[in-house]
């Protein structure tokens, strides 16, 4: 039994594996070389005899084949070398395996045979072996009566051609009749056979040569059969192999055309006949898309893509009509990344066909696209991201405007958020595609679903700009090799430029969107926003964001990129953006335009035009630059700085000029200057270009962008004006204004205009109705007019008037401030003062301005002139100003003799200036005839005024007062005689003095002060010089005393003035011929003791003393001087008439209290001139009860210890008077006190011995002219 089993070749359980691999019956005859030296120990000769043996079990054969396959895989070279030793054995071995393949019915053994044959054939690489196999296959298929047993052969052939692709051509050319057998297999009712046939066909058609040879076979026989097989396939194997064959076929345009034509014919036959005909590929692929098998869905999508790649416009309609886009959109929700990616690819190609949109597939599928994009962006698949964003971009770009893509605002919002996430992707390629999609998304028809989501759009743009900014700021790649590094840097710059260009295109579309929505009332704001909510979702807020984003992000990015490279396309988009922004935010247009001009954008635009647009190339860039310059220039010209805006007609003319001329301005700056300087005859079109060039230079210069040489521009503008004059042309006002401005700012301080140019300018100016239309507020323009006599004489007055009308500051802070304490002058005023110093005659024009200009301008001129005179005391213009003022005043009095104050509102300003000029005169200066004439005219003017004309009277009184006190004694007498001759002036003073105690209608306190001081001065001069009196001035004595006892609040200066008047009357013993002190109403007869004091009474004297004491307690320096002086005069008056009363008044106990109150002001407070004078008065009248001898000694001792060098001249004079009075009274009997006094006298500086008042004691206190010496001495 064992022998029989062994002979049959059946393995016995438990037998060693090596025994199972050997054919024991024949192994002993085999050469040992056939036994493999590696496990498993297989004998090839045994295998050769064992495998075809009918008596060996299939299990054992399968084991042997499996082991041979394994050893062939592991030790291919060993087995190959062993088999190839004998070609006959090799061929026999292959034939044996092929025979086993054809005869065995076990599929697993057949598969092993195929695998071993394929491996052995490919390893041996013997042509004879391959030919042998092909011949055997051919013979097998030809001799086979039925295709039933052809499965193994067909499968082997397919895998053999797959393993050795070159066999496809050999098989087709040498065994062409096999194709008929393949067709038989394709119709054989076995999907296994059909699958094998399709697999073999797929391998054959993978070879281009074989495919070309088989093209006729396919068209005539295979095409329809194959499509029907694909359509009817039920098993997955057949479906997969059919789709594999289809994909191979679709690689060739010829087969695509055949299949699609056959499909189109099938569809037309079906639609006409009403019954199914041939199979249509789109419908078959649609059925596969509908299957639940993901592999088939992906393969179907790949096939659709392969067809569309050949010609989308030709083949896409067939798939669209088959509603395939609908199912592709559905597949976008799949969790399979491969299927989603494949669907993206199909849809991208279908989107190239307009029918895809007209049949509203995008409207149906846009929600799926957005949702899929959002999901895919969460995956880590860059290719999926790119394809999804690319599909979205294609849909957004190609969607017809008349078909609304987003049917709701919420859907539009979700799309924007998806794009925002894609734009922020760290992968540059994804972000770049997302930027393109964003650009397409920002279309009006995509955003028209109300309400417009401005906040979402803003977030999307911010993300896009931030991504671009991040990319533009990444460092450029560097390599160690110089050339490679340079290429890499150029490549990086190019990539950045492309990304920046795409970003700017998106931003430009956002700007266009804002412009288009300006005419859409429903798009202005979100109608569903609560009234109390912040208006962020409005077009205005969105437009302001665009402007801000461009200013802070876009412009810096473009400027940085310009430092590395210049791309015309990028700059064209950039200037289109700037152009749009000058339109969409009207209320910020002016500010933005000025910022652009100040940032050298005029220069940048002109340089780009000169570089790229000098010829016909880059017309789009030229148009964008020209449009930007046009809107920028018109914006700047319509809202100019420091000049009048042009009229609508003028602006319209200039706009038309710029619109036609700017596209033709494309030369560099030197060429433009040469063109502007052209002295030849200039034609109309060339002249317009000159106008444009000049306006561009003007606007650049006004915003401090001086990109051309000032000297060269100065010469060019002069030549331009002379050319205009030579051709008899008159430029537009705006152009002429620009010319004058450029001449002014480019003129060197040492250069003057040529005489012909000045003459041309004057001629042009004379043709202008008013200078304000060409005036620009600039110091250099003023200098141009004022430093050329021909221009100043004709236009200086108007130019200066325009200057002061344009000055924003009123200069109030410069008025009434000592020159030493003034801050630095404003630059414009400092420049103006330099012009005044160079030509003092200009000051006469200023006087005329004060005379004739409106009040506000006249006031400015007055302050400026005052400030100039104060700060420039070395400029002697007093005589010039006074002479001119005299002419003005004479003209005024002639023209408005009755009431000149009502005829001119600026008269007070002129008089104020005259007072200042008078104050600048040196003391002790003789009054010339001019001064006497002025005194006469001013007094005459005052006589024509009423007490209510305070604005005229105040500066007039100041002038008269200073004229009296700021000259020599002889001139004072002459001046007083002139003034006293004006009875109208005396009458006016009498009225004013009477108004001092009027309850109603009283003028300002300052005017009353001047009236009292002027009256005191007149009285003193008349009395001292015994001058003729033409009219007496009456004053009520009781009212004077009452005014001192009950002074007005905050009227110390008025009290001082009244005291000065009363002191003068007391010094004259009330005997003045000019002033008559009369009682108030009916008075009772005086008492006998009062007769000697007349016109004063004892009670009045005591009342006056009390009033003086009260005024002294106020401790006002000027008022104290006036009080002490009046008290001195009063005691002198009393002593002359009644010494007892004088001593009584001087010895009043209240005087001691008053003295100690004054001394309570601090250490050495007695060293004040008014206190020293008061103590001197008490010593003189021996008022020991007020100031004892011991106290006098203490005062002198303290004075000896004091630092006398630090005391003022007035204090030293008072101290000297006190010491002399003490000496004369003999109050110092003590020798030590006498020595102390001598030391004190010797310690006085020499100036203390002078009894004269200071040379300069003229002040203006609160608008009142005051001489300190007049009140004090």
Automatic annotation (TrEMBL):
<dbReference type="InterPro" id="IPR016024">
    <property type="entry name" value="ARM-type_fold"/>
</dbReference>
<dbReference type="InterPro" id="IPR052133">
    <property type="entry name" value="Immune_Signaling-Apoptosis_Reg"/>
</dbReference>
<dbReference type="GO" id="GO:0007127">
    <property type="term" value="P:meiosis I"/>
</dbReference>
<protein>
    <submittedName>
        <fullName>Meiotic double-stranded break formation protein 1</fullName>
    </submittedName>
</protein>
């Amino acid at each position: 039994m064992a022998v029989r089993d062994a002979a049959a070749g059946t393995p016995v359980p438990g037998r060693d594996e090596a025994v199972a691999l050997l054919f024991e019956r024949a192994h002993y005859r085999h050469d040992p070389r056939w036994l493999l030296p590696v496990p498993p120990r297989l004998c090839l000769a045994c295998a050769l005899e064992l495998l075809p043996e009918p008596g060996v079990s299939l299990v054992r054969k399968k084991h042997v084949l499996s082991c041979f396959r394994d050893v062939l895989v592991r030790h291919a070279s060993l087995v190959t070398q062993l088999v190839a030793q004998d070609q006959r054995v090799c061929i026999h071995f292959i034939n044996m395996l092929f025979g086993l393949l054809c005869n065995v019915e076990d599929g697993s053994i057949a598969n092993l045979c195929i695998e071993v044959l394929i491996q052995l054939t490919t390893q041996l690489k013997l042509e004879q072996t391959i030919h042998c196999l092909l011949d055997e296959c051919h013979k097998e298929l030809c001799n086979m009566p039925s295709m039933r047993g052809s499965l193994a052969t067909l499968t082997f052939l397919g895998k053999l051609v797959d393993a050795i692709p070159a066999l496809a051509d050999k098989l087709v050319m040498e065994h062409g009749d096999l194709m008929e057998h393949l067709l038989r297999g394709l119709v054989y009712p076995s999907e296994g056979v059909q699958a094998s046939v399709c697999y073999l066909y797929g391998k054959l058609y993978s070879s281009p040569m074989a495919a070309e040879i088989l093209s006729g076979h396919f068209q005539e026989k295979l095409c329809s059969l194959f499509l029907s097989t694909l359509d009817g396939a039920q098993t997955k194997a057949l479906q997969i192999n059919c789709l594999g064959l289809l994909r191979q076929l679709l690689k060739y345009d010829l087969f695509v055309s055949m299949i699609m034509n056959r499909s189109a014919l099938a569809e037309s036959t079906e639609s006409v006949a009403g019954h199914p005909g041939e199979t249509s590929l789109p419908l078959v692929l649609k059925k596969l898309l509908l299957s639940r098998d993901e592999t088939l869905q992906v393969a179907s999508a790949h096939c659709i893509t392969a067809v569309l790649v050949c010609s989308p416009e030709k083949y896409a309609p067939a798939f669209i009509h088959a509603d395939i886009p609908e199912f592709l959109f559905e597949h976008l929700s799949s969790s399979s990344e491969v299927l989603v990616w494949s669907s993206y690819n199909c849809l991208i190609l279908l989107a190239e066909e307009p029918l895809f949109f007209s049949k509203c597939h995008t409207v149906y599928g846009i929600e799926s696209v957005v949702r899929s994009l959002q999901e895919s962006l969460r995956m880590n698949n860059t290719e999926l991201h790119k394809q999804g964003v690319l599909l979205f971009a294609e849909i957004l770009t190609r969607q017809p405007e008349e078909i609304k893509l987003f049917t709701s605002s919420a859907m539009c919002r979700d799309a924007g958020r998806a794009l925002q996430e894609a734009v922020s992707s760290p992968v540059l390629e994804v972000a770049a595609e997302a930027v393109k999609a964003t650009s397409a998304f920002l279309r009006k028809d995509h955003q028209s679903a109300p309400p417009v989501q401005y906040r979402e759009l803003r977030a999307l743009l911010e993300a896009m700009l931030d991504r671009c900014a991040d990319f533009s700021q990444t460092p450029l790649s560097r390599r160690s090799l110089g050339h490679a590094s340079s290429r890499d840097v150029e490549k990086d710059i190019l990539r950045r430029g492309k990304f920046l260009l795409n970003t700017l295109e998106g931003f430009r579309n956002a700007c266009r969107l804002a412009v288009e929505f300006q005419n859409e009332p429903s798009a202005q704001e979100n109608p569903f926003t609560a009234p109390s909510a912040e208006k962020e979702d409005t077009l205005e807020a969105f437009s302001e964001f665009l402007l801000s984003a461009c200013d802070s992000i876009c412009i810096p990015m473009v400027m940085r990129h310009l430092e590395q490279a210049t791309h015309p396309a990028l700059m064209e988009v950039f200037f289109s953006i700037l152009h749009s922004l000058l339109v969409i935010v009207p209320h910020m247009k002016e500010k933005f335009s000025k910022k652009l001009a100040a940032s050298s954008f005029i220069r940048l635009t002109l340089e780009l035009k000169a570089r790229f647009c000098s010829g016909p190339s880059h017309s789009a860039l030229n148009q964008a630059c020209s449009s930007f310059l046009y809107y920028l220039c018109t914006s700047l010209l319509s809202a100019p700085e420091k000049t009048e805006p042009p009229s609508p007609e003028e602006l319209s003319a200039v706009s038309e000029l710029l619109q036609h001329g700017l596209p033709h301005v494309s030369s560099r700056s030197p060429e433009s200057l040469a063109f502007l300087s052209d002295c030849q005859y200039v034609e109309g079109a060339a002249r317009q270009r000159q106008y444009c060039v000049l306006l561009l230079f003007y606007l650049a210069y006004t915003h401090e962008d001086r990109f051309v040489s000032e000297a060269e521009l100065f010469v060019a503008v002069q030549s331009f004006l002379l050319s205009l004059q030579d051709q008899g042309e008159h430029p537009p006002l705006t152009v002429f204004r620009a010319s004058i401005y450029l001449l002014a700012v480019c003129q060197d301080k040492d250069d003057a205009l040529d005489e012909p140019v000045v003459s041309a300018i004057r001629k042009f100016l004379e043709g202008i109705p008013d200078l304000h239309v060409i005036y620009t507020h600039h110091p250099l323009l003023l200098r141009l007019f004022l430093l050329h006599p021909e221009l100043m004489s004709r236009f200086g007055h108007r130019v200066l008037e325009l200057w002061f009308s344009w000055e924003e500051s009123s200069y109030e802070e410069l008025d009434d401030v000592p020159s030493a304490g003034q801050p630095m002058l404003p630059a414009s005023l400092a420049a103006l003062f330099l012009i005044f110093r160079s030509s003092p005659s200009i000051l006469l024009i200023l006087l005329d301005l004060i005379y004739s200009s409106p009040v506000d301008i006249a006031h400015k001129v007055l302050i400026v002139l005052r400030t100039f005179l104060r700060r420039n005391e070395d400029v002697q213009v007093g005589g010039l100003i006074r002479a001119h003022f005299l002419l003005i005043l004479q003209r005024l009095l002639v023209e408005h003799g009755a009431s000149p104050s009502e005829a001119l509102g600026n008269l007070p300003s002129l008089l104020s200036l005259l007072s200042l000029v008078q104050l600048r005169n040196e003391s002790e200066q003789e009054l010339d005839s001019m001064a006497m004439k002025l005194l006469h005219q001013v007094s005459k003017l005052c006589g024509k005024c009423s007490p209510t004309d305070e604005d005229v009277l105040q500066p007039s009184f100041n002038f008269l007062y200073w004229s009296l006190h700021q000259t020599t004694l002889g001139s004072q007498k002459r001046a007083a005689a002139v003034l006293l001759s004006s009875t109208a002036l005396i009458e006016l003073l009498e009225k004013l003095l009477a108004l001092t105690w009027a309850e109603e209608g009283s003028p300002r306190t300052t005017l009353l002060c001047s009236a009292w001081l002027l009256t005191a001065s007149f009285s003193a001069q008349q009395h001292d010089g015994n001058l003729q009196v033409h009219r007496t001035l009456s004053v009520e004595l009781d009212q004077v005393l009452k005014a001192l006892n009950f002074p007005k609040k905050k009227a110390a200066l008025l009290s001082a003035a009244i005291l000065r008047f009363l002191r003068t009357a007391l010094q004259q013993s009330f005997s003045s011929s000019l002033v008559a002190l009369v009682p108030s109403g009916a008075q009772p007869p005086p008492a006998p003791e009062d007769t000697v004091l007349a016109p004063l009474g004892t009670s009045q004297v005591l009342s006056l003393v009390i009033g003086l004491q009260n005024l002294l307690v106020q401790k006002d320096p000027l008022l104290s001087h006036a009080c002490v002086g009046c008290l001195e005069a009063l005691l002198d008056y009393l002593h002359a008439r009644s010494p007892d009363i004088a001593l009584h008044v001087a010895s009043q106990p209240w005087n001691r209290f008053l003295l100690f109150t004054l001394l309570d002001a601090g250490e050495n407070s007695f060293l004040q001139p008014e206190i020293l004078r008061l103590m001197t008065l008490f010593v003189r009248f021996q008022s020991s009860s007020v100031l004892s001898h011991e106290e006098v000694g203490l005062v002198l001792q303290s004075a000896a210890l004091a630092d006398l060098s630090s005391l003022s001249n007035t204090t030293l004079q008072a101290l000297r008077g006190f010491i002399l009075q003490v000496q004369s009274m003999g109050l110092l009997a003590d020798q030590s006190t006498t020595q102390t006094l001598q030391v004190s006298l010797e310690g006085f500086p020499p100036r203390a011995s002078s009894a004269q008042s200071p040379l300069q004691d003229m002040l203006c206190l609160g608008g009142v002219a005051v001489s300190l010496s007049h009140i004090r001495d």
